[in-house]
Please model this.
Amino acid sequence: MKTLVVYLMAMPETPELARVAVESGADVVELGFPFSDPLADGPVIRRAGERALAAGMRTGRCLDVLAQTRTLVDVPVVVMTYASIFDAYGWEKLEQDSREAGATSFIVVDLPSDVRPELRRVHLVAPTSTDARLKLAADATDGWLYVVTVTGTTGARADLAPTLAPLAERVRAATDVPLYAGFGISTPAHARAAAELVDGIAVGSRAVEAAEVGAAELGRFVASLRDALDGK
Amino acid sequence: MSQTFGAYGGRYVPETLIPALDDLEAAWASLRDDDAFRAELHELGTSYGGRPTPLTRAARFAADQRVYLKREDLMHTGAHKLNNALGQAVIAQRLGKRRIIAETGAGQHGVATATVCARFGLECIVYMGSEDIRRQAPNVERMKLLGAEVRPVEFGTRTLKEATSEAIRDWIANVDDTYYLIGSCVGPAPYPEIVRELQRVIGREAREQFLAAEGRLPEAVVACVGGGSNAIGMFYDFVPDEDVRLIGVEAAGAASLGSGRAGVLHGARSSLLADEDGQIMDAHSISAGLDYPGVGPEHAHLRDTGRAVYVTCTDDEAVAAFHRLCKTEGIVPALESSHALARALDCGAELVAVCLSGRGDKDLAEVLAQ
Model:
């Protein structure tokens, strides 16, 4: 059984969207807390962040959305954000308040795995990571490793990156933790191909686009990925 | 080598870039005290860049003081930015990178980067906000003449902040063959230290020249601060001279040090224009080079330790100083440098060294439209 991780930007309607995503087959929800200058993100998630900020989705309201999401879904919910958000709110306080609101773990995209080890979180590895850094990330990570498929930012691409296979092989040699691949995975075909290499996939930009159309579109999209991962 | 300056600095970037920063740090560690590297930089600075730049007494500009201008405006390409671009271009070649990317605000760093890329035969791509492209049209044309591709950045404030973000995104996508030639003492470690070391020549020369002219050190050293590269270069060799006041001048609408708070932007923790949630706010300045909500982490540290003070200057004050230097000294200063000129006049010191970081040809349209 392969794991399906779905990213949604925190918006007032996100708890209901998360419920639909889980009902349609998502095993983990990543909840984005928007940041004004998201270096690791391509245009789709950058724009979603701009819209969220324009809608007033500051950290306090993101925590409310997290708490509401937790009442609607019983899968892991991972807060995904940037260091500036933690730095302003207080690193320990945001960790604590998020956990109280129902967060399972964290992904801080611009916080390297050797910095602030006291914040238990899901670490990312990339095609450029050295073997030493793969080991560092794998040993410290919280439950699973986020395997960045491409040398690049988030966003849909035509094909699954050829860099994923060699990276998955290197990480697999370093650790037994589950590997979920993300960045550039946006179609059932990508999902099927990635499922041959890793234990799960994380879908961001395309899920955000589907969520912007509406719950029904998001449900259809997530179900199509679920079917692909299940070999249907 | 430390990656931080007190509570500031560090490396807040995606994992993809960490190995490249490690490579850069290793290369820098071997180069910074390498005699051949220093000799190469010195040769380029003198035979190509026009160093040493003079120190000019501005007797009519400041009749009641003894104000001296460190003439980085006379450097090749018209600003101090070339010191940094030349040095980093040499580093890029040592790392085997042939594709160079840069961000630019006023266009001075873009021009300097395009210049060194032409000089060394490197591919050059410059990210520039579309608002800055409008404000600094002559520099855009210069970059193109020099063979660079200028990529407009059309989102957010359409200025230096977004241009920097896009340059970093390009670097993330092309890190294998690309060198990011950052233009100020900002960004993830080791960039702030590299840029400071490459700009230190300004203060080193100015200190010697001032001693030669006056037989003593200045009471105050004044420089404008956007990202802060000319200021850190001007200040650094005066830091041990405890009686010399170091005064950084920020644009009133972009006072990252004067009215900012700690936060993380573009790979480093520093003092930023940010709200209480850590969201970066917009900066506003007539001067594109100062129109940036962040600042180099070492300046935040110098502020906190009290070794340097940071004051502000309004758009109107800068424009007035611009006109005054034109009329009294026959020197057209950059609008950025004009901020430092304004505060040099009323800093309360008699003996003053000001970093005239660039010339103002690029600003004529903006000033004449005022």
